[in-house]
Specification:
The chain has helices at residues 74-88, 117-129, 140-155, 171-176, 180-196, 203-219, 234-250, 257-268, 287-296, 299-314, 326-331, 336-356, 359-362, 370-385, 391-404, 421-432, 438-445; strands at residues 4-6, 271-272, 277-279. It is mainly α and 451 residues long. It has a single domain, classed as Alpha/alpha barrel (Glycosyltransferase).
Length: 451
């Protein structure tokens, strides 16, 4: 039976904030993806006004609302540069990056540990978010080597496997789950496919690898939508797997819709918006991890609800003061079962995001493990995907705290659980540069309505 804790009483020492790493990408035709140059001001230029672009819903207009974009502060830019300089020096000769084993968490030298796919995928995603592609950017060569490493890991995997590495006992696996490598690699490959376009020489190889990863994730899925091989905080592995399936589907991979539905439903089930209780049985007893997972996997659906209800009100089909509930969603056109599911996602998102940003939850800064850094990232990405204006307040608070705890050498490391400086630095850089991916993340949550 699930163990529940009442939220107001949960002053968990780990602190943090919510929402997954989903780096899922909308499938964008070559030439239509936005510039990856590091942006220090509101988005301008052709990429923001392309007619029929992927970021448009039928009624919300063309392009990106400049008011949703946030410039990168100078102190954050300096922090990013220092972190990236440290990170690229951590790459191994085989192109990979490593976090080390759970048994030797004291080893902080990135060249004294074995490389692993999960850590490599995180670093590669950070490099892309900070402006590099396979063909251009300050670290294109390093990204290319990391990509080759990950593709080879997938291609060497025997049929019927549920993970892409024979390594066991890594910090990431022990804390998140035995199959975490394949989930994070799938997210990286989805990002990569959106950036390179179908004409790129690596596209077909990466697409095949992504489909292989999807098959593994679905084979490892339990009947309740979670993923086999729980680690200390197995709910996070299941959350990453759910967002990986979302990412892969948007990249055109062969994703089973029932698997995706089960994965989303499992994440929502960990948070009860009506009672304020959290199921922490598979979250190491830590409210943060369960709430962040629930928030991340409800963000896109919460945005869909907001947009459909706003559209109905604008057209006069709903009263302006109509509350969001299952009956309202039926009135805007959803079948009863779908209305119930979307209403649950909407309520969970709005309740969980508030808990994720509560002061008593984020006081762990300075005493964080890698799981906390992941939760901070999940929160920010969820707010953007949901088209939630609250993301700017989150960004200012979180980046300020991250910059304050950066090590003198430019890295970040965990103080418990996942201590790896490589993994924590990659995750921190993804947080600091989340505003580089505004268009990208908005596209993930965009609802394509029929006219």
């Amino acid at each position: 039976m699930k163990k529940h804790l009442f939220l107001p009483a949960l002053l968990v020492a780990t602190g943090a904030v919510t929402a997954l790493i989903s780096f899922r990408q909308a499938r964008i035709p070559a030439g239509m993806f936005y510039s990856h140059e590091h942006r220090t001001g509101p988005a301008t230029g052709p990429q923001d006004t392309v007619h029929g672009c992927v970021f448009r819903t039928v009624y919300e207009g063309e392009g990106l609302d400049p008011a949703f974009v946030l410039a990168t502060p100078d102190h954050v830019l300096r922090s990013e540069q220092r972190g990236l300089q440290w990170l690229v020096k951590a790459q191994a000769a085989n192109g990979g990056f490593g976090s080390g084993t759970h048994a030797r968490q004291d080893i902080m030298d990135p060249h004294a540990v074995s490389t692993d796919p999960a850590t490599t995928a995180m670093v590669a995603m950070a490099m892309m978010r900070l402006g590099s592609t396979l063909d251009k950017g300050a670290h294109a060569e390093q990204l290319k080597r990391a990509t080759t490493y990950l593709l080879e890991q997938v291609e060497r995997t025997p049929k019927g496997s549920t993970n892409i590495t024979t390594l066991t006992g890594t910090q990431i696996q022990t804390k998140l789950g035995a199959n975490i490598d394949v989930a994070l690699t799938a997210q990286f490959l989805s990002n990569l496919l959106a950036r390179i376009g179908e004409q790129h020489g690596t596209y077909l190889r990466a697409k095949r690898a992504l489909n292989t990863c999807v098959g593994m994730i679905q084979r490892a899925q339990n009947s309740d939508g979670s993923v086999q091989g729980d680690g200390w905080a197995g709910v996070l592995q299941s959350s990453f797997a759910a967002s990986a399936l979302e990412s892969a589907r948007s990249a055109g991979a062969e994703v089973d819709e029932e698997s995706l539905r089960l994965a989303r439903d499992y994440q929502r089930s960990n948070f009860d918006a009506n009672t304020g209780t959290v199921a922490t049985e598979r979250a190491a007893g830590v409210t943060l991890y369960a709430v962040s997972s629930s928030t991340r996997n409800s963000a896109a659906q919460a945005r869909e609800v907001n947009e459909r209800v706003a559209k109905a009100k604008k057209e006069g089909r709903l009263d302006q003061d109509a509350a969001v509930d299952s009956k309202t969603l039926e009135l805007v056109g959803y079948p009863p079962a779908e209305a119930e599911r979307l209403n649950a996602a909407y309520q969970v998102y709005n309740a969980a995001k508030a808990q994720a940003q509560a002061d008593h939850v984020i006081t762990g800064f300075g005493n964080n493990g890698g799981e906390e850094f992941l939760s901070f990232l999940q929160t920010g990405e969820s707010l953007v995907i949901a088209k939630d204006q609250g993301w700017k307040n989150w960004y200012g608070q979180t980046t300020r705290r991250l910059v304050d705890i950066q090590n003198q050498d430019g890295s970040w490391n965990g103080h418990h659980c996942i201590t790896s400086p490589v993994f924590c630095t990659a995750t921190s850089l993804l947080i600091l540069s989340v505003n580089n991916d505004i268009e990208h993340l908005l596209a993930q949550g965009a609802v394509k309505y029929g006219k």
